[in-house]
Amino acid sequence: MERTLTLVQHRTPESVARRLLQASAAHSFDPSVDVDWGAPRQEDAWYLQPERLSLYGTALWDRMDERQRVELSRREIGSHVGMSTWFELCTIRMFADYLESRDIRDPRTHYALTEIGDETRHLIMFGRLLAEMGAPVYGPPAHLRRLFSVFSPTFGDLTSFALILVLEEVLIRVQRETARDERVQPLIRRICRIHVTEEVRHVSFARAELHDAVRRTSRARLAYHRELTGFGAWMAMRSLLHRSVYDGLVPDPAAARREAARNPHYRETLLWSAEKLVGFLTEAGMITRAEHHWWRRAGLMR
Ligand SMILES: [Fe+2]
Ligand SMILES: [Fe+2]
């Protein structure tokens, strides 16, 4: 244990960036050649593992037939991917701000540029996946776009990296499981595997940068960023599942939304997806008791 702590302390943002640059050079993917886009779709295969769906285990789920359940899985991954494309565009914008004050000779700068490159390829990969699946394209609600425009100029490195971590860690946890699940369409499993491999590096970078930013920030500023991060996490999580995913699929979409909101299985899925994230942010000083209400509202904390 002591040895692990010493190793962590000696890991500087520069050394993390150097390691990630090497890993990126060795294991990066080009979705135009590393994904078999022409492979036939499997009849009746899931698009997302059923146990992670918002209605799984509810009375409504019991009344749905297999075709409706599979269709729900197609729409829910469509919503995750649609929202991810917006989140990744936001990430690119936050990275552009981060880069403005950095030295072009610094390995941290080089890794940030590499990560923008990864996200650019992910956006193309997600766009092709949505086109291939024929799923509706669910974008972010207008109020979320407006809130991002108003608040993002005050994010700084702290809130930027904390919010990047929220989305990356939650989605990685689900996608890692999706990639392994043989009931899921092979195309989706392949894309999840590629995405997780590159996103794990993004998480390492964001964690190192966040530690560094916390160290440089005064207590008063830190309190503001904790509040902003908690609020941002709540707004992002409540948009992950688009409110129209049930439209045309079940007789009463509003009742389905209510049933999903109080579904204990889905609540457990959200808590499970954020276990490591909430532990890390608490340990890093980005979540204290004062912000627990945001994280509970986001469904990421008990
Ligand atoms: Fe990504
Ligand atoms: Fe990422």
From TrEMBL:
Highest taxon above the source species: Bacteria
Pfam family, one: AurF
Protein name, per record: Diiron oxygenase
Organism of provenance: Actinacidiphila acididurans
